[in-house]
Amino acid sequence: MQAAGLWHVGTLGSVTDAPVVRFAPSPTGFLHVGSAHSALANWLVARQAGGRFLLRIEDTDAERNRPELIENVLEMLRWLGLGWDDEPVHQSDRTDEHRRAALEMAEAGTAYWCDCAGEQVQARAQERGGPPGYDGHCRRRGLDRSDSTALRFRVPEGTTRWTDLVRGEVSFENTTLEDFVLLRSSGAPMFLLVNALDDAHMGITHVIRGEDHVNGTPKYLLILRALSLDEPTAFAHLPLLVNEGRKKLSKRRDDVSVADYRAEGLLPEAMVNYLSLLGWGPPDGVEVRPVEEIIELYDLAAVNPSPAFFDRDKLLHVNGEWIRSLDPADFVARASPFLPPGDEPAQALAAMAPLVQERVKTLAEAPAMVDFLWMEEPPLDEAAWDKALVRGRAAREVLDASLDELGRLAEAGDGAWVAADVSDAVARVATTAGLVNAEGRPQMAKAQAPIRVATTGRAVGPPLWESLAVLGPTRTLARLGAARERLG
RNA sequence: GCCCCCGUCGUCCAGCGGCCCAGGACACCGGCCUUUCAAGCCGGCAACGCGGGUUCGAAUCCCGUCGGGGGUACCA
């Protein structure tokens, strides 16, 4: 909340009191976690200060543009709960406007036409042994527009600086900036031009984006100044999200698709919560908390400028906490897309929900915890069978005694039984099978193992008494009998 | 190469000149609890890159150095 005052610093008056921010994805891939991180920061700032969070689709690259991906981006933002204001702006709709501004610069002399081919530029750079990049060859040639000329910005002398909310003062000597291209020879406007123009057009007050845009910022600023357009009141360059090799997260190497995380059973609350923790931490140290609180506490000025490792383990931990905090009915509803179709799986999960919630880190893990309840023959973990039934001590005795004790309980129970009675019966089984400790107490851990594998197919799972209570006497006894037979 | 940014436990975050022989979280290790597995609780391991300065006093300020990253397209 301390940061609230920041919105007013350097503004000219009451008009810009509430921040106007934007998320500007280019539809060249699925929304990835790095973009989501930026989108979240923008959204938080807008929601915190009663501002507006706008969307702009940067679709000016006709080559790589994949319109169908726009829908993925929007869907993921919706899933994350990062709702936007107004209709998304499509950059490609404003091309005429962009071109007009570029021509205006050509007219004013702040930009000039250049017919150098890329190879020529490179060759000259190599020849003079200097740094690669454009050398200003056409600066004074006074070329006219043609279908083989690109428009380049005439970088002025001086120093370009700005105050970054995350990084403090940042400055560039303009001599280190090359005369970059504004308009391709095809007439298509370039990213930097379009980006700056559209931000001005949309009245963006706070440009919040990844650190990879730092180097483009002086050019962005220079363009706005050449056109006498209003500059944003603040910039914030967020830390990059990196992989274990400390490299920027990339689509090729890393698991970055938000859609994939959703498919893995991450809760959007957990995703947003975890993302907020990269580069920032709440002042009170409470990490897992509702987004409403994060909105209140988030502060760009407190964001750590160094790169942050996207730690899957911690993400999963946060997700586990969120899953455990869910109301059981809500948990079942959210996990249902991960269940096989039909009423049975849903009912099985509902019957065991609280016990399952405590044991999974993702929704996708839930079905395997209760599949023995709806499957006629649950998949058998051979290693578990071998350990508990073949090599396990007194396995036959346990099964025999179980058939006996649980059979008696079933008869008394008239088709159903309760967990406490199952527990008592297994205690008697342990004693019968000789599984007792020095004090003569039944060793429940040992006794439950063969029964668990025989009835659920696995060595681990939810508490057995409750599991068998839901499974019911008929199926429990049938499976115990089958296991006994298989053992021989 | 050049430009820019960054540098506290393995990882994320706290620390903004004395409260720090550095705190929390994840991971890891041990213990307790316990019908398995989890969860929970208790405990442990583990960091201020290095060198100079400034100061009575530096993780905190300055300089340098080393290291890492990002950018350097008629991609966005």
Quick synopsis:
This protein is 44% helix and 10% strand. The chain contains 19 helices and twelve strands.
What is the element layout, followed by pairings?
Blueprint (H helix, E strand, L loop, with lengths): L19 E4 L9 H16 L3 E6 L10 H13 L8 E2 L4 H14 L2 E4 L3 H10 L22 E4 L5 E6 L3 E6 L7 E3 L7 H12 L3 E5 L6 H10 L7 E5 L2 E2 L15 H6 L4 H9 L14 H7 L10 E2 L2 H14 L2 H8 L7 H15 L8 H5 L11 H9 L4 H19 L5 H14 L11 H13 L7 H8 L1 H15 L1
Parallel strand pairs: 1-2, 2-3, 9-10, 11-12
Antiparallel strand pairs: 4-5, 5-8, 6-7
The structure holds one RNA strand of 76 nucleotides.
Question: What would you note in describing this structure?
Answer:
There is one protein chain. The protein has 19 helices and twelve strands. With 488 residues, the protein is mainly α. Strand 2, helix 2 and strand 3 (89-90) form a beta-alpha-beta unit. Helix 11 packs across helix 12 (343-357). The radius of gyration is 32 Å and the shape is elongated. Mean pLDDT is 93; it is low at 1-15.
